[in-house]
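Input record (one chain):
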Amino acid sequence: MELTVFHNLKIMSTKKIINCLGITIVILICNACSLPSNLTQKAENKKVPENYNGSQDTVNTAMVKWKDYFTDPNLISLIDDALKNNQELNITLQEINIAGYEVRARKGAYLPSLVVGPSAGIEKVGRYTSQGASDAVNDIIPGQKVPDVLPNYMLSANISWEVDIWKKLRNSKKSALYSYLSTIEGKNFMITNLVSEIAISYYELMALDNQLEILKKNIEIYQNSLEIVKLEKQSARVTELAVRRFEAEVLKNQSRQYYIQQSIVETENRINFLVGRFPQPVSRNSKTFAELVPDTIRSGIPSQLLENRPDIRQAEQGLAAAKLDIKVAKANFYPSLNINAGAGYGAFNPKFLITTPQSLVYWLAGDLMAPLINRNAIKAMYYSATSKQVQAAYNYERTILNAYIEVANQLSNINNLKKSYDQKAKQVQALTESITISTSLFKSARADYMEVLLTQRDALESKFELVETKMHQMNARVNIYRALGGGWR
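The corresponding structure, as predicted from the sequence alone:
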């Protein structure tokens, strides 16, 4: 009777202990799962104006492939070589590969890990320990003691697996995937900029060639005027001052052509660097530069920027990754379940290694662990992930705003440059005609040499400005193509 009561009391005491431990564990887990408060994520704003200057036309020049947008065969060849050889672009391609491997690594993190192989070792157990006392009698080989230093041979397969209860590992993999997609969009944006930089430098090179040709022709005009002034001096109609002024103008323009030649070399080498090759002449037909006419640009509607601009898509993928990183950081507050299992053969002597079932070993264990104290590191990661999401949302909005403003600026620029070019072309024509007029008036003593000199100088500058305006027109054509999101397809 007393034994029964004692046994019942013992059972009741054990149940109370188990219940208390269970309640304690639940309280600690609930405390571990509690999240910091006052953390607010930012919802991104994707709204853009409905149109550019009232146009609702959805046809978009950005959809045109760069080989169709640029028709100059020399320029096409340069861009094609750059897409193969540009070092910075090739570095970016390797970054894409690295990001792809990161996706594979995180995908493997939520799958079971299997390790198979043999192992060997030795162990010395104290005789007065529980294991040492049990080893004092050898049941395997009667009459022999178990050696103090006991070898251990093992052939086993081990499996470890973190059960992804809270989708921490899967969200981590998805975040890496969005980061991978972001690098691809970054590569596309680099291609867009690379195509634009080569085209702009190419048109600048053609403009410099034209300016050099204009300067050489004007040097001939100055030299002819100098000869006229010398003849006028011999007839005492002008002084030595007039001769010296025209000589100085000739020398100034002869010196100026070397600056243009240096600019040509530097522009060629800028293109060579983008193409990924050492300095060499750049093939071009600059005689057709004055005949280039910018095409009509179809800007579409602003909402198309979200699909066409690689930098916007890159920011969008980065924002998606940042949102998932918050979920990953939040999951660190929750308990994690780890399962470890294995099976194999183990023996102290190789000849017993594959003896079944005596040498057969297996094990299975599960761990449910949650952070209880000193969670500052986890909180810091959570705070950091939330701040990065807010940062990514602002960056996304800023990228959209910047894209719209770039398009609006270039559309206005194209319109104003066209008007400016038309006016400058009339100015060049008027000043070119005034050179002949001023020279005739000077010969008939109806104008002084300064009028001739200033007229020729103004005509030269107006021709230079006309070429620069044409270059700006072609650059605006390139910039609007890039701003709309063209060039990477």
